[in-house]
């Protein structure tokens, strides 16, 4: 009997052991040992969390790393406001409504097939069928995009709305995919098949860029390998890094720890107190504040459905009361300057022309168009308007776990209470927060808006003020002024008439300052940090040879071309300066093709010359919060060291006393046991 | 041949299990959808944060595409039925947040880690706990027994995740003896080299210890009580009177006390698939619990549903198996059953 049980036990043990070992081993059998040399690889962090996504833009959520494998027709840099012909060689305006794009003769896919206009046409066609993919949402602005020759793509603007911003962005900033790869998938399985396609098989992936998939494990890492026989080697050269890799880290602090240790080179994460890392050779774009180039505008949105917020005086008073400097230094580590009150990004030199000092000072702003914190003035405005702040209840809600926003809203609430508002700053769960926005039951939130791009600042104004939009596509606050519609529609049509365009933009700015539907706070930072331990030549403010630079931006693909191994001298790629086409040249070309104009009044929306207004809706990536879709344990570490005007308490455990008490209790326990035993 | 009564019993049990299973799956389905937002909102947020230049038209298109992709545009009852059918055919669907990735792939990549962590730790805790408990029960009245009793009581009531955090803080952060988490160093790629296996074991120690120590107490107490009970039984006293050796007595007593413990073990292992969820989160151990936690936060319905499908099934199977293990181990039950 006993033996049977023992045998059974042993058998069970053995079986369990074998089963478990098999399960573990089986996982590894599938994986080949991948050893890539550290000094030939650029490791990035901050792009993928939780799982490595696929490389198929039709899936709706691909990894931005596909931007290294697939190149666009033209690449756009917002900082320099230039376009680089990449797969395309040049463009031509056939007439003011039609553009022709000529693809380079040498352009070929990695399997040798030439890149043709049919690839462009088909890629666009599939996007129209699926809804997502390259050129998504372009159907409203582009009449057609088709091949008129092997290497010639023709695109025509849709009129109405004759929006040149979107039209040019759709046509120039377009990423073609290989038709001979996607056509069989789409024709056989339709929408379902093309959206579920992974495109991560090294044996079958066909790319247009210098890097190709080498290894992909959704739970672990992705590695891209350089494709040396790349078609662009004569034009663009060959990038120095042989491999680009991204490992999965559990959370933000873990990824940042890897950067500090030198295990990662290129970071797109939020890093608290990043200036302290300069001693280790880790730098950001600027050596001093604000360290990062700002991208999207972050606003304080007040729910204009609520009658108490509908008086512009209330909003203006709040705008004067906000503690901008404190907020950004303490909650955001100084990673962004205060945003201009007209929502124009003043960090980019190209946009400075949209700042009108006279207009700003007339509306009580500083000459560089910013609100200056002035509590007295805020109180005055309220008194003049006859508003009693104690009757107004404001809750500035931010999702729990987004600690920088949480802290900011707490500081805002505190100052608002100083003026007399009944203010608080709750931090509900993300789903509750989002739901309150969808249902319109919120009071106030901190939220994001459009980013910088070809169409700045029109894009921002449209997103914030267009009454035809609603959450989440735009107009989060519910502004209902139809007066702006004419300007919003007219501006994109006046691309070839920059002076008139500027006039209309000023008009919009005036309305914005008059009504202040939302209060611009700061710019969401374009997270970019680099480690010079293994690679040098990174672009920064002293050497701004390229931007965007964040690893999660699909247009940061030129970066590896300017890198060199640490110890060697890096060279800025000469083709950038050689090939770049400033936006003004495109506007100039458009103006030349447009017919001489008859008089046009600024307010009309249909001038005879079809001025091509182009907006580049770039894929500028701006994670404005520490936590995007990462487990919320991340953020709690970073802000614990700050104690500002907020009520952030920190508990310090008294180790000495605790241990002493524990030992004392143990001894007492033993003593009792021994005494009772004796009895 | 299987006796008719046993057959009837089996069929009844299976039907009951089946019904309970469907009820459990339904509850999961409903609970997930009670949350105000849906996965599309999260995906849109993610997109907006990384692409602030998305035009309103693009956002609209993406939302539409996502709703269609996830079948969220179909009426709720249709979603429910599809979900049930698919669960039974083994098609757990595709993840919402990690679009295009099969749920079964996600689970299969996490399951081995969970089993690797929880099964040996539970078994070790069981063996050692039982041994200590039995010996303590045998040596009743001694200082050893009293110490064991107190310690086990404390340990059994300690939340295992708190113990995990303590261990992590003490050994990984303060003393820097062990790594602060994950299954293997991020610079290594899974392969069968000795270096990798050693690294895995090195990362394994702290999570293993946290489950081991926390589980130890419970088993020890239970075993102690059972052995004390056995010691009072007739056959032990008779053997003692006959002058049998200590080891013989110990063996008799141990075997008889085992039965409830085996049940407990089977149930414990059955729940192992769920993973020591909090332990995995504390140590960032890429197992089922970790995946489940992340999926819930991201409202990734199919992954949560998939994990629960497997979890509930395993628990039920474990339950089911326990009955038979009982019969195997305890001849009294076997004989008694035959009499019917």
UniProtKB/TrEMBL annotation, chain A:
This is ABC transporter substrate-binding protein. The chain crosses the membrane at residues 655-675. One of its GO terms (molecular function) is peptide transmembrane transporter activity. Residues 84-462 form the Solute-binding protein family domain. The keyword Transcription regulation does not apply. PANTHER family: ABC-TYPE DIPEPTIDE_OLIGOPEPTIDE TRANSPORT SYSTEM, PERIPLASMIC COMPONENT, PERIPLASMIC BINDING COMPONENT OF ABC TRANSPORTER. The keyword Cell wall biogenesis/degradation does not apply. CDD domains: PBP2_TmCBP_oligosaccharides_like. Keywords: Membrane, Transmembrane, Transmembrane helix. SUPFAM superfamilies: Periplasmic binding protein-like II. One of its GO terms (biological process) is peptide transport. InterPro entries: SBP_5, SBP_5_dom. It comes from Ignisphaera aggregans.
TrEMBL record, chain B:
It is found in: Cell membrane; Membrane. Its main location: membrane. InterPro entries: MetI-like, MetI-like_sf. The lineage of its organism: Archaea, Thermoproteota, Thermoprotei, Desulfurococcales, Desulfurococcaceae. GO terms for biological process: transmembrane transport. Belongs to the binding-protein-dependent transport system permease family. It comes from the Archaea. Residues 111-322 form the ABC transmembrane type-1 domain. Keywords: Membrane, Transmembrane, Transmembrane helix, Transport. The chain crosses the membrane at residues 12-32, 113-136, 148-172, 192-221, 262-283, 303-329. It comes from Ignisphaera aggregans. It is a multi-pass membrane protein. This is ABC transporter permease.
């Amino acid at each position: 009997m006993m033996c049977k049980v023992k045998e059974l036990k042993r058998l069970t043990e053995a079986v369990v052991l074998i089963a478990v070992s098999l399960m573990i081993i089986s996982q590894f059998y599938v994986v080949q040992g991948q050893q890539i040399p550290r000094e030939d690889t650029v490791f990035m962090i901050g792009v993928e969390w939780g799982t490595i996504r696929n490389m198929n833009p039709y899936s709706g959520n691909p990894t931005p790393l596909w931007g290294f494998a697939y190149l666009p027709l033209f690449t756009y840099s917002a900082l320099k406001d230039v376009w680089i012909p990449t797969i395309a060689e040049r463009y031509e305006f056939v007439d003011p409504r039609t553009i022709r794009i000529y693809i380079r003769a040498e352009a070929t896919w990695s399997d040798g097939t030439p890149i043709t206009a049919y690839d462009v046409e088909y890629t666009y066609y599939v996007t129209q069928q699926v809804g997502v993919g390259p050129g998504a949402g372009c159907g409203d602005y582009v009449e057609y995009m088709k091949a008129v020759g092997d290497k010639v793509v023709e695109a025509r603007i849709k009129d109405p709305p004759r929006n040149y911003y979107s039209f040019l962005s759709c046509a120039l900033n377009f990423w073609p995919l290989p038709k001979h790869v996607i056509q069989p998938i789409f024709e056989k399985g339709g929408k379902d098949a093309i959206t579920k396609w992974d495109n991560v098989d090294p044996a079958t992936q066909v790319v247009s860029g210098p890097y190709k998939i080498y290894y992909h494990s959704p739970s672990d890492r992705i590695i891209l390998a350089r494709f040396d026989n790349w078609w662009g080697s004569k034009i663009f050269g060959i990038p120095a890094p042989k491999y680009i890799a991204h490992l999965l880290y559990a959370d933000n602090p873990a990824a940042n720890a890897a950067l500090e240790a030198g295990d990662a080179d290129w970071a797109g994460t939020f890093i608290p107190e990043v200036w302290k890392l300069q001693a280790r050779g880790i730098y950001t774009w600027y050596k001093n504040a604000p360290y990062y180039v700002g991208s999207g505008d972050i606003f304080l949105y007040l729910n204009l459905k609520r009658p108490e917020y509908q008086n512009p005086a209330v909003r203006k008073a709040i705008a004067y009361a906000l503690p901008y400097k404190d907020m950004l230094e303490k909650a955001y580590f100084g990673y962004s300057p205060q945003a201009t009150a007209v929502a124009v990004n003043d960090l980019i030199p190209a946009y400075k022309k949209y700042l009108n000092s006279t207009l700003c000072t007339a509306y009580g702003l500083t000459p560089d168009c910013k609100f200056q914190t002035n509590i007295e003035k805020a109180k005055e405005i309220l008194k003049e308007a006859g508003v009693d702040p104690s009757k107004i209840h404001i809750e500035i809600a931010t999702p729990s776990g987004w600690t920088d926003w949480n802290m900011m809203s707490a500081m805002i609430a505190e100052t608002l209470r100083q003026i007399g508002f009944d203010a608080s700053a709750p931090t509900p769960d993300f789903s509750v927060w989002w739901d309150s926005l969808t249902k319109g039951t919120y009071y106030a939130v901190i939220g994001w808006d459009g980013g910088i791009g070809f169409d700045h600042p029109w894009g921002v104004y449209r997103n914030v003020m267009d009454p035809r939009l609603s959450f989440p596509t735009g107009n989060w606050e519910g502004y209902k002024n139809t007066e702006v519609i004419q300007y919003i529609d007219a501006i994109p049509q006046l691309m070839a008439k920059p002076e008139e365009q500027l006039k209309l933009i000023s008009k919009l700015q005036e309305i914005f300052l008059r009504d202040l539907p939302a209060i611009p706070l700061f710019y969401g930072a374009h997270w970019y940090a680099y480690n010079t331990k293994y690679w040098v030549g990174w672009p920064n403010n002293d050497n701004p040879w390229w931007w965007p630079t964040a690893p999660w931006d699909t247009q940061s693909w030129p970066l590896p071309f300017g890198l060199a191994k640490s110890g060697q001298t890096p060279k800025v790629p000469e083709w950038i300066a050689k090939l770049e086409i400033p936006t003004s040249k495109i506007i100039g070309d458009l103006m030349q093709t447009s017919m001489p104009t008859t008089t046009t009044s600024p307010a009309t929306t249909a001038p005879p010359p079809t001025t091509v207004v182009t907006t580049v809706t770039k894929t500028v990536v701006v994670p404005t919060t520490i936590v995007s879709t990462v487990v919320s344990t991340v953020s709690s570490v970073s802000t614990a060291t700050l104690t500002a005007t907020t009520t952030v308490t920190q508990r310090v455990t008294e180790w000495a006393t605790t241990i002493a008490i524990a030992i004392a209790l143990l001894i007492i326990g033993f003593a009792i046991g021994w005494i009772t035993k004796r009895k | 041949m299987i006796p008719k009564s046993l057959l009837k019993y089996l069929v009844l049990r299976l039907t009951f299990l089946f019904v309970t299973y469907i009820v459990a799956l339904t509850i999961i389905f409903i609970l997930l959808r009670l949350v105000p937002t849906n996965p599309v909102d999260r995906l849109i947020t993610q997109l907006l944060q990384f692409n602030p230049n998305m035009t309103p038209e693009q956002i609209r298109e993406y939302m539409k595409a996502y709703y269609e992709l996830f079948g969220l545009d179909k009426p709720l009852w249709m979603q429910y039925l599809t979900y049930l059918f698919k669960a039974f055919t083994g098609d757990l669907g595709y993840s919402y947040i990690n679009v295009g990735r099969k749920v079964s792939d996600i689970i299969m990549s996490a399951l081995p880690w969970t089993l690797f962590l929880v099964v040996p730790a539970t078994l070790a805790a069981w063996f050692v706990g039982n041994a200590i408990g039995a010996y303590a029960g045998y040596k009743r009245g001694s200082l050893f027994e009293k110490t064991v009793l107190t310690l086990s009581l404390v340990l059994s009531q300690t939340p295992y995740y708190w113990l995990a955090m303590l261990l992590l803080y003490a050994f990984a952060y303060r003393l820097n003896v062990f790594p602060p988490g994950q299954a293997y160093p991020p610079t290594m790629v899974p392969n069968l080299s000795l270096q990798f296996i050693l690294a895995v074991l090195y990362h394994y120690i702290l999570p293993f210890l946290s489950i081991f120590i926390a589980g130890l107490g419970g088993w020890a107490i239970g075993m102690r009580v059972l052995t004390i009970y056995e010691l009072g039984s007739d056959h032990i006293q008779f053997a003692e009177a006959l002058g049998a050796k200590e080891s013989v007595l110990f063996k008799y007593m141990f075997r008889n006390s085992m039965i409830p413990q085996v049940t407990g073990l089977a149930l414990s292992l059955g729940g192992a698939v769920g993973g020591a969820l909090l332990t995995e989160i504390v140590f960032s151990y890429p197992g089922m619990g970790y995946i489940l936690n992340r999926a819930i936060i991201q409202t990734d319905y199919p992954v949560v549903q998939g994990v629960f499908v497997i979890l509930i099934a395993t628990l039920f199977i474990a339950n089911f198996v326990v009955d038979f293990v009982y019969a195997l181990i305890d001849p009294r039950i076997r004989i008694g059953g035959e009499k019917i």
